[in-house]
Amino acid sequence: MSTAHTGRPDASMTLITEMMQRPLDPGYAAAAESRQKSGLPPATSHRGPMLVIFAVLIGALLATSALALRAPTTSASQIKSALVGRIEASRAHADAQTRLIVSLRTQIDTAQATALSQQSQSGLAADLSKLELAAGTVPVTGPGLVLILDDAPPQASAKGSNVDPRAATAPDQGKVIARDLQIIVNGLWQAGAEAISVNGHRITARASIRFAGEAILVDYRPLVRPYAITAIGDPGSLSVEFADNDGGSYLQSLKANYKIRGDIQARDSVVVPGEPALSLQEAQPVQSSVTTRAPTTTFGRTPSPTTSQPTETSP
Amino acid sequence: MSQSNDPADGRPVAGGRSPWQRLLRMARPRATKANAFAALLAILLGFAVATQVHQNQVVGLESLRQSELVTILDNATLLSSRLDQNARELQTTRDALVSGSTGDAAALKAAQQRLDTLGVLAGTARAHGPGIQMTIGDPRAKVTPPLLLDAIEELRDAGAEAIQVGDVRVVASSFFDQSGSGIAIDGIKLTQPYAILAIGDAQTMSSAMEIPGGLSENVRQLGASITVTQRSDVTVGALHALRAPRYARPVPSPAPAATP
Amino acid sequence: MIPALGLLVGLAVGLFLHPAVPLALQPYLPIAVIAALDAVFGGVRAVLDGIFNDKVFVVSFLSNVVVAAFIVFLGDQLGVGSQLSTGVVVVLGIRIFSNVASIRRHLFRA
């Protein structure tokens, strides 16, 4: 039976306990003791010249290090941060304008609906809602699927020194490019999708899927990985027909060859948002439906004066 | 311990409290300065955490190259100006609608104009306007559906508002497929040469086709021919047969359309 | 007071003159700064404890900086440079925190 050493239970942790309980240099305590023994006050004066010199040196050291260690802002990074600033500002402005457009549209639609019902133009109102659904200006909901597309998982190496030799020769093959999205969305339409949105942006007749270098833009807006493609359609046949057609086999080859991740989940109910800011700038209808006849009077409302405008005829 | 730990007792109990009671007692709000200060600090902490989490999710624009940033900025500016114009037009319409005497006629006219616009976008109305006419001659069938699809996307990016290929109107749901040796849109086979009409800003669209690495270069590299002509008036007369959706229903209001 | 003024003077001199640090010494600058800060906070705490000694202060500052830089240099030669510098930073950081806590207790009695 060995005699137990009667020491502190944490005697083996001297390093850490020293660090935490005696952070002050023990030299101070020792010097103070020896000074007290020889009758001097324990602390020395603060005004010694040596001390002041060292204070200046320390100050200079701190300032120099601060300046030397700061990451230099090269002109390239300055340009980039200026660009990023402008992009963010532009995006904030676009978001604000979109909110404004949504509220204006709601007001206009409400006013129109009331006016149309008062003028018993229910046919016009029905046509409007049918075309709004088709063009993509209103959000829609229904059964469908969600396809989450993402780049291939990054290589497990990359601790700085070990560069994967394959990555050097075939760079970024695992990245999803705009063409992948185009072909997959095309395949979904072919499989019978009735409405599609990518990361919340509705695919309309004017929404393009493009790229800017490595960033994918849908409807002029850059996307963030992962890419969520939401489609509404026949829950039974949508995913099956998609898997059968060219879009589905393209996705399969992406997964097999480049390890791109693409998971399809069937859903009972998804929401595909609308694009309320859809409009035309240059195109005009060949046959306009704007008429000159005065609105029919109902419920005792007095008719408004006829606005005499010629109907547009085909050229 | 003879102390009562029963919370139903109601009387304040000294010592011997269960931890839950201690917690409850601490959680009771008291109007002291220290409490208010602590609440303020907690709010700041929560705010800082939320901001940091949001910061982490923001698009990593800094990681892109300068040229890509320039392109994104161009697109963002284009989007902004389009939205600005749209907002201005809507404001004019809205003001006309809510103004007293001309309200009814203005509402009818606005509804009919909206019907026209939506009809052009949905492909159920013929349209005309400035634009381009493109002809792709591909006797050896080298042009693939993905290439043509990419051309349509490029046109849309350049601002095309109504597009027609051959006799087929291209809308949002149009799909491109290989059909025998040729290309089919919406299941309708196209005949050679592919005649594409697009309404929009003629200059922008034609430059978009001619840029290095763009459609013209790709088509010519494949051995096919392509001509792009700007026109002051192009008529897109093909119509898209609208099918009523069987599964998609409008989201019941008052939910507004989602903004990106 | 006078040493604090000296510190400010040194900071100003460093900021305005912007002396160029030789490239070979640049990797050791961060460690030197932390070691210097440890010595400074130790000195302030000694003042508040009433046992300040300027010789001890100077020696502790010099030895801190030299030893820390030497440890990092040794680590670089042995191939464990980043780990050793992390260790040095952790130890100095803990000491700084403890000294600052003691200073806080002196000053604010809280």
Low-confidence stretches of chain C: none
CATH class of the domain at 127-234 in chain B: Alpha Beta
Chain pair with largest interface: A-B, 121 and 108 residues
Low-confidence stretches of chain B: 1-7, 255-260
The rounded Rg of chain C comes to: 16 Å
- Helix/strand/pairing category of chain C: mainly alpha
Q: Tell me the number of helical segments of chain C per DSSP (H or I, 4 or more residues long).
A: 4
| Estimated radius of gyration of chain B | 31 Å
Query: How many strands, which pairing sense, and closed or not: the largest β-sheet of chain C?
Result: none
The strands making up the biggest β-sheet of chain B line up spatially as 3-2-7-1-8
Portion in strands of chain C: under 5%
Which CATH architecture of the domain at 127-234 in chain B? 2-Layer Sandwich
The CATH homologous superfamily of the domain at 127-234 in chain B is named Protein of unknown function DUF881
Largest sheet of chain B: 5 strands, antiparallel
Write down the overall geometry of chain C.
globular
End-to-end separation of chain B in angstroms reads 63 Å
CATH-defined fold name of the domain at 127-234 in chain B: Alpha-Beta Plaits
Give the overall shape of chain B, derived from the CA principal axes: elongated
- Determine the oligomeric state from the structure: heterotrimer
Mean pLDDT of chain B comes to: 83
State the total count of DSSP E strands of chain B: 9
Give a structural overview:
The complex is a heterotrimer of chains A (315), B (260) and C (110). Chain A is built from nine helices and nine strands. Chain A is α+β, with helices and mostly antiparallel strands. Chain A has a five-stranded antiparallel sheet with strand order 3-2-7-1-8. In chain A, strands 4-5-6 form a three-stranded antiparallel sheet, covered by helices on one side. In chain A, helix 7 runs antiparallel to helix 9 and helix 8 packs across helix 9. The C terminus of chain A is likely disordered. Among the domains of chain B are: 60 residues; 108 residues, 2-Layer Sandwich (Alpha-Beta Plaits). Chain B has seven helices and nine strands, in the order ααααβαββββββααββ. In chain B, the strands form two sheets. Chain B has a five-stranded antiparallel sheet with strand order 3-2-7-1-8. In chain B, helix 3 packs antiparallel against helix 4. The radius of gyration of chain B is 31 Å and the shape is elongated. The two termini of chain C are 24 Å apart. The mean pLDDT of chain C is 85. Classes of the chains: A alpha+beta (315), B alpha+beta (260), C mainly alpha (110). Chains in contact: A-B, A-C. At the A-B interface, helix 4, helix 5, strand 1, helix 7 and strand 4 of A face helix 3, helix 4, strand 1, helix 5 and strand 4 of B. Strand 1 of chain A pairs antiparallel with strand 9 of chain B.
